[in-house]
Amino acid sequence: MRLDLPLVKALGDKTAKAMAAKLDLHTVGDLLHHYPRRYFEPGQLTALDELTVGEHVTVMAKVRSSQSRVARSGKQMGKVVVTDGTGTLSLAFFGKTATWQCERLKPGGVHLFAGVVSTFNGERQLTHPEVFIDADEEDALRIKPIYPASAGLDTKAIGKAVGLVLDVAEIDEDPLPHELRLEHELMPLRDALTLVHRPNTMDDVRRARYRLRWDESFVLQVVLAQRRRELEDQGGTSRGGRFGGLLDLFDASCPWVLTDGQLEVGKTLHTELSRPHPMHRLLQGEVGSGKTVVALRAMLTVVDSGGQAALLAPTEVLAQQHARSLLSLLGDLATAGELGSPEEATRITLLTGSVQGAARRRALDEIASGEAGIVVGTHALMSEGVEFRDLGLVVVDEQHRFGVEQREALRAKGKHPHMLVMTATPIPRTVAMTVFGDLEVSTLRELPRGRSPITTHVVANRSEGLQQAMQLVKEQVAEGRQAFFVCPRIGDEEPPKSEDGERPPLSVIDVARGLGSHYLPGLSVAVLHGRMSSEEKDEVMGRFARGETQVLVSTTVIEVGVDVPNATVMVVMDADRFGISQLHQLRGRIGRGGHAGTCYLVTEMPPASQPYERLRAVASTTDGFELSRLDLEVRQEGNVLGTEQSGGRTSLRWLTLQDIEVIEQTRSAAIAVVEQDPQLQQHPALWAAVQAILDEQKQSFIERG
To answer: Which of 17, 144, 188, 621 is the most buried (most CB within 10 A)?
Structure first.
């Protein structure tokens, strides 16, 4: 039975349709790679009168009663009472599965249950226990795989389907070369799939999982190694600049001294831009480490070589901010075509989705003619009708907002242009080797002179701490400084439904209204959010940058790129609703001038809770690399090959970005294999595995498009 055989031919129409609809499984290979999410480990049966609160137990008992109902909160809940003759035990189920569990656990049935003992209203209970229908005492002594399941297709049905195909599936071709399996003591693929579905011991599970994690990482690293090789093989244009050009004039007029890190990365970029094949580099750095200046110097090098540079930003606010910053940095060097402009000057053109009519036509003409040496924009740069005269460098800001397919769409506007992608979210080593594995990495850790320290406090909402924050804002504004308030939502939309009477997240509109009428009367308060028009956002940010507005209340549209050196206070409302990296980015909006910054993370979470501890972790350090490690522990890796690079559904089943040893080993092995056999002609099974994930990624991209 081939692994690409449709399940309808292996299992029949009814089961195959259920597998496809509920679990997105279509072939025999899909089913065999639908691994158990965990295992029911063997243990002695426990009598109900001997249960201890907090203990994980396995019990065999008869159902005495079973009832489901709708709670006052509107949630479905179910209660099943079981007995074994020595005592009774309640089983509690909530949500969508409550009715289903109560319907199948009919009075009189004897089943196996496993879970952690707790108490409720004085009764011992198991909440959402594992249920094994038609089990016997021998089942309590066997390891049972627990599969990701859904209503109507439970773990038992999935296990039965796996059993039907496992013994007859053709698993003789192994994507891992034989010499690699020997070197790293990895079992053959057939053994790994057999033991992961039918383990005799938990050590079987451990060894099988290790082999399958190796598979996932190795195939991914082969894809990335092939991409790197393809880029190296592409012909490109050397963009080494020239003496006495824009870059030299900019450096001569620059009012500050570049850090050692900026100079070192600048040399690396110049060397790679001078080569006749495309640069493909990631520049990561702390918030405020000066990545924009480094990128600008690279762009000026390309312009000095007769080419154009494009800077891609994820939002209009950030694109507009970049355009303003570049114009400010370059001064009259960005006034090409204007009376009295220097001979070497260029032009900066902004193109976003909101630029329409005559302004859009003018921008397109400047881009096509080459008059615009530097083009700043959003996704609009990738749209039809945008033609560059000679695109030599693509700079992608905040890379985590984009994916491989998106950045490649802009590269396609030129003839193998150089690429520099930037992120202010420091990246752990394993992420750099996977999510950004087709890029070489440079890091800026040193902050430029003049950056002031930032102190962070976690405070409870409606507490003395919040009153202190308001008082500090008043004091700072009285001294001529400014402040940010950030909220999770805008406020002109229907608030999300809350559970258990929780209030909805605080909104920009409500907080701004409260600040103006109660907390900060007499101060100039403005709002900024994503539903405002481009002109409105630009006007609000312009007034704030000029100091005409004292307090800005915003959503996370100010998360990156906003540079107002006069802002010294950041108050994040409902801070527990933001991610660690987001909070670090937001905090980086203050302390950018000569004045110290203070950040308040406001929350209603109790001090002992996990969200509160996460906020304390952010407050304890301004080291973005340490925070990125913590952030990685609490979020998913994302689809590392495509556009879903900020979490969500992952293409990895068992490999995590904490598996540094596996990732390092597979990266080295993949590079060696691709160097010897770039097209994998000597490794047909590996070639098939690579094609499978590439085809899956292409299909996913088409569906999103």
So the answer is: 144
**Rounded Cα–Cα distance for residues 395 and 407 (Å):** 9
Beta bridge partner(s), residue 530: none
Q: Where are the alpha helices (DSSP H) in 546-657?
A: 580-587, 610-620, 624-634
Residue 481's DSSP bridge partners are none
Average pLDDT over residues 458-462: 82
Spatial CA neighbour of 285 closest among 273, 298, 294, 277: 294
Point out the least confidently predicted range of 139-148, 198-207, 618-627.
139-148
Say if CB 395 and CB 310 are below 8 A apart.
Answer: yes
599 alpha-carbon distance from chain centroid: 24
**Element housing 601 (H / E):** strand 597-603
Letter string b/e over residues 210-237, b meaning 16 or more CB atoms within 10 A of that residue's CB: bbbbbbbbbbbbbbbbbbbeebeeeebb
Mean pLDDT of 244-267: 90
CA separation for the pair 665, 214 (Å, rounded): 9
Cα–Cα dist 460/606, whole Å: 8
Least confident of 240-244, 311-315, 462-466, 505-509: 462-466
Euclidean distance between CA atoms 174 and 215, whole angstroms: 10
Q: How far is residue 611's CA from residue 459's CA, in Å, rounded to a whole number?
A: 13
Q: How many CA atoms lie within 13 A of 221 on its CB side?
A: 28
User: What per-residue string of b and e applies to 151-167 under the rule 16 or more CB within 10 Å gives b?
Assistant: eebbbbebbebbebbbe
- CA 612 and chain centroid, separation: 21
pLDDT on residue 648: 33
Which tokens is 577 given? 């609703």
SS3 527: strand
CA distances from 571 to 487, 511, 613 (A): 9, 11, 18
DSSP letter for each residue of 5-45: SBHHHHH-HHHHHHHHHHH---BHHHHHTS--SEEE----B
Amino acid at 21: A
Q: Could you give the residue ranges of the DSSP H alpha helices within 479-609?
A: 508-514, 534-545, 580-587
User: In Å, how far from its chain's centre is CA 58?
Assistant: 38
C-alpha 166 chain-centroid distance: 35
**Residue 515: closest CA among 506, 507, 523:** 523
Taking a C-beta distance cutoff of 8 angstroms, is the pair 345, 336 a contact?
A: yes
SS3 state at 624: helix
Task: Tell me how far apart the alpha carbons of residues 667 and 506 are, in angstroms, rounded to a whole number.
Answer: 45
pLDDT tens per residue, range 363-409: 999 999 999 999 999 989 988 889 999 999 999 987 555 656 666 77
60 has pLDDT over 70: yes
Tell me the C-alpha distance between 482 and 584, whole Å.
19
* Residue 638, pLDDT score: 46
The angle, 0 to 180 degrees and rounded to 10, between the axes of the packed helices 316-330 and 291-304 is 70
Specify the residue for token string 């959402």. Answer: 128
Residues 162 and 63: beta-carbon distance below 8 Å: no
